[in-house]
């Protein structure tokens, strides 16, 4: 039945598609000349790589004069595109290179880029779910060259090709925008005749509700349809129209993906995403290095728990890889979130499970890759971002603000501790009324008197990032909460643990800004963090 359904679609596509030649212009002026200057080896690489590059990246790569430097550019590009940045394996690069090899083998041609449009499509999207060859046809209006139709099931994407010049080089087949009235009538008649040979239930894209509506269609309720022969053909025309719309949608998905996602790899289609929240907080270390804490939170509802031996167990592996701006590896770390519950079939613990990785880095700019993998379901959450570490020595400075779900005093050093405080990180940065906004930060480089006492003031403000809804209208609120107080303490370093009531806040996103002023030197510093309030 599936084979018959596919034939129905193929026949309909043959009737509604025709060919236009596509002229491909340079993405930027001088591109062709720069490509010609490459060695044969580099041309082969570039032709395969071009589908992953925008015009600015193409110009940047081709404008590099040295082959060694171009190779370094490509190396950094693949690091940047690595879907699993904390592992040695680069799945995107491996699959891309395999696709290019296959495109040359199956759809190769002598002139650049070395393959026809089938090869380009293979490199962009991989091999299709089904690939059907279409014989040529000579009709009343035109000759239809032989071709192929590719269908990608998971993308719901149809791509027709035609061997337009009968030379074995296939191009895209594009629907013409205009055709004669007689040609349109004849095409519809041929579609009707084609569909009349098959039962309604065999239509591949027709849902049960659509079939039911077609079967129960009563033309006698429509006064302007009087001819019995017209009534007999109307159901088939309706079926053709429904199927034709779905075919056009599948075909148009090709242009949609070509514009929005010009390349798609198997791991992007098949990989289930694990929701992960993270934040990065920097503290001054005892040395010249900065202690960088990367905190995670994973919704416990997204973790697959396995019951074994009367215990419910869930586990997620966390990993971090830090590179400098030259893409050299600088540091890495790992952590494991492991939860074991005795009894019960459902997890009864917190809604979000925390994890944390601590690194020591020099001040500077970095690129960081983060991954979280559920060991049971294999669902994966991946992020890449850049961040800057400021110097904190020999001057007044602050750590970043660590938003927390809970801060408690402890007697011994355990996970998440700073001094005698255990700070449970809350990267989600969302608080529900009436639970308080809880956070921690450190102050460095305060000036002290002869007794090693520092004097400073703290000023904090919470400002909404949107308007506040009041009844049926929205109003501007410049500052929701603010406070200022003076403090003093022993030493140039001071730690701060604060809680702010959320009763006067409302559903929305806010910015917390903290300013610290050294009352002896009158210098100041500030940091900010964003959070949300849930009702």
Task: Describe this entry's structure for a reader.
With 535 residues, this protein is α+β, with helices and mostly antiparallel strands. The protein has eleven helices and 27 strands. It starts with a helix and ends with a strand. Strand 10 and strand 11 form a beta hairpin. Helices cover 26% and strands 35% of the residues.
Beta-strand segment tally? 27
Helix content: 25-40%
Overall pLDDT metric: 84
Q: Counting H and I runs of at least 4 residues, what is the number of helices?
A: 11
Which regions contain 5 or more consecutive residues with pLDDT less than 50?
13-23, 176-181, 191-236
- Biggest beta sheet attributes: 6 strands, antiparallel
What can be said about this structure in brief?
The chain is α+β, with helices and mostly antiparallel strands. Helix content is 26%, strand content 35%. Helix 6 (91-107) packs antiparallel against helix 7 and helix 8 (181-195) crosses helix 10 (228-260).
Helix and strand topology:
Blueprint: H1 2-16, H2 31-36, H3 40-49, H4 55-62, H5 67-80, H6 91-107, H7 117-125, E1 130-134, E2 137-138, E3 143-144, E4 147-152, E5 157-162, E6 171-172, H8 181-195, H9 208-215, H10 228-260, H11 266-270, E7 277-284, E8 290-299, E9 306-308, E10 311-323, E11 329-342, E12 352-361, E13 364-374, E14 380-389, E15 397-398, E16 402-409, E17 417-418, E18 421-425, E19 430-432, E20 437-444, E21 453-464, E22 468-470, E23 473-475, E24 481-490, E25 494-500, E26 508-518, E27 524-534
Parallel strand pairs: 19-27
Antiparallel strand pairs: 1-4, 2-3, 4-5, 5-6, 7-8, 8-12, 9-10, 10-11, 10-13, 13-14, 15-20, 16-18, 16-20, 17-18, 20-25, 21-24, 21-26, 22-23, 26-27
């Amino acid at each position: 039945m599936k084979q018959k359904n596919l034939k129905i679609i193929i026949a309909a596509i043959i009737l509604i598609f025709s060919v236009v030649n596509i002229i491909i212009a340079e993405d930027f002026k001088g591109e062709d000349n720069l490509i010609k200057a490459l060695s044969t080896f580099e041309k082969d690489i570039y032709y395969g790589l071009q589908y992953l590059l925008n015009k600015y990246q193409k110009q940047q790569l081709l404008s590099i004069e040295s082959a060694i430097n171009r190779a370094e550019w490509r190396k950094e590009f693949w690091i940047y595109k690595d879907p699993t940045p904390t592992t040695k394996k680069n799945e995107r690069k491996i699959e891309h290179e395999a696709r290019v090899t296959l495109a040359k083998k199956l759809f190769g041609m002598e002139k650049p880029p070395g393959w026809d449009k089938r090869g380009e499509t293979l490199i962009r999207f991989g091999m299709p779910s089904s690939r059907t060859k279409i014989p040529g046809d000579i009709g009343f209006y035109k000759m239809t060259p032989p071709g192929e139709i590719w269908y990608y099931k998971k993308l719901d994407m149809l791509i027709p090709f035609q061997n337009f010049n009968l030379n074995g080089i296939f191009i895209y087949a594009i629907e013409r925008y205009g055709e004669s009235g007689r040609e349109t009538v004849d095409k519809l008649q041929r579609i009707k005749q084609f569909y009349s040979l098959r039962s309604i239930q065999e239509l591949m894209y027709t849902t049960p509700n659509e079939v039911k509506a077609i079967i129960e269609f009563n033309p006698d309720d429509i006064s302007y349809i009087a001819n019995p022969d017209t009534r007999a053909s109307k159901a088939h025309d309706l079926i053709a129209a429904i199927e034709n719309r779905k075919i056009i949608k599948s075909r148009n998905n090709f242009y949609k993906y070509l514009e929005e996602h010009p390349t798609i790899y198997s791991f992007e289609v098949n990989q289930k995403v694990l929701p992960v929240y993270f934040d990065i907080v920097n503290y001054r270390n005892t040395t010249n290095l900065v202690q960088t804490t990367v905190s995670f939170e994973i919704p416990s509802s997204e973790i697959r728990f396995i019951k074994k031996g009367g215990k419910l167990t869930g586990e997620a592996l966390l990993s971090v890889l830090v590179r400098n701006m030259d893409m050299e590896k600088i540091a890495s770390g790992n952590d494991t979130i492991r939860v074991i519950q005795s009894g019960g079939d459902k997890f009864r613990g917190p809604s979000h499970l925390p994890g944390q990785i601590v690194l020591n880095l020099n001040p500077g700019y970095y690129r960081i890759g983060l991954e979280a993998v559920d060991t049971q379901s294999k669902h994966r959450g991946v992020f890449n971002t850049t961040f800057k570490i400021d110097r904190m020595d020999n001057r007044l400075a602050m750590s970043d603000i660590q938003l927390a779900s809970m801060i408690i005093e402890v007697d011994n050093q355990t996970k998440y501790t700073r001094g005698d405080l255990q700070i449970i990180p809350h990267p989600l940065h969302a608080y529900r009324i009436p639970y308080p906004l809880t956070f921690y930060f450190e102050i460095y480089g305060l000036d002290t008197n002869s007794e090693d006492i520092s004097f400073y003031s703290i000023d904090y403000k919470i400002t909404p990032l949107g308007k506040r809804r009041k009844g049926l209208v929205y109003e501007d609120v410049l500052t929701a909460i603010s406070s200022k107080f003076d403090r003093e303490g022993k030493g140039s370093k001071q730690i701060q643990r604060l809680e702010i009531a959320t009763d006067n806040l409302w559903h929305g996103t806010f910015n917390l800004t903290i300013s610290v002023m050294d009352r002896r030197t009158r210098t100041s510093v500030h940091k900010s963090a964003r959070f949300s309030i849930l009702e």
